[in-house]
Design goal:
Farnesyl Diphosphate Synthase, single chain, mainly alpha, 2 domains, 286 residues
Amino acid sequence: MRSDLTVAYDRCQQVTKREARNFYYGFMLLPAQQRRAIYAAYAFARECDDIVDADLPGEEASVRLAAYRESLDRCLAGRPQGPVFLALRDAIDRYRIPHDYFYRLVEGVETDLSVRRYANFEELKRYCYLVASVVGLVSIEIFGYRGGGQTREYAADLGIALQLTNILRDVQEDLQRDRIYLPQEEMARFGYGEADLRAGVANDAFRRVMAFQVARADEYYESGRRLLPCLPRRARACVGVMAGIYSTILDDIRREPEGVLKQRIGLSAGQKLALAGRELVRSLVP
């Protein structure tokens, strides 16, 4: 008979496999124990995010998120309830993950309940740190790493790069939820307004806005990739796959920025598997 903890980890794996369509291909390359811990962390983040993205009335979403934070309180106090929190508690204990990271993630997700526009990049950067960089920081605690604070900066920068790519990819989807993550200051600088975005206008101003955002993401990828040599071999391959998938999506946006106004840009399963194989081979190189 399987233990409650095994069942809990299996539930986290199911959530990750269903929802993490890009990350899952990288997670597969990890040793089993680390892979399970990553599944637990991802499932926590996914459940938290789903509360905000469920299109609930604002007050109801706030109440549910507060209840989720209370569940996190109980988990960190040693009284986890439910499969995700049971697995998460085990992962936190096993890898000594700082508790504050999980509260920061909830804070970032909660931002989507009240903030639908970002005046400038500094505001957006903080959001990206909370919802994405923190996930990277949790991950490297599970992977193990060398380099101390500098390595954590690389992990944070890679998280920002991935989130900026998400933002560009999901422009249309976010707009349907009345969320615009492109900094208002930069849209105005290039002469592209919210009305243009809603109308799907793909003019020179739009292409300049997108080129500026892509160039910024490139800078964060450049810094974030410095994380790879600081990681153990299989973790290096895992992170390489995720960076490869998202930077390929960014390249597609670079070539045809107007594509994001029409459909969600992504890679096929075959392309993702090819990237996984390539990064696994690269990770063997000293």
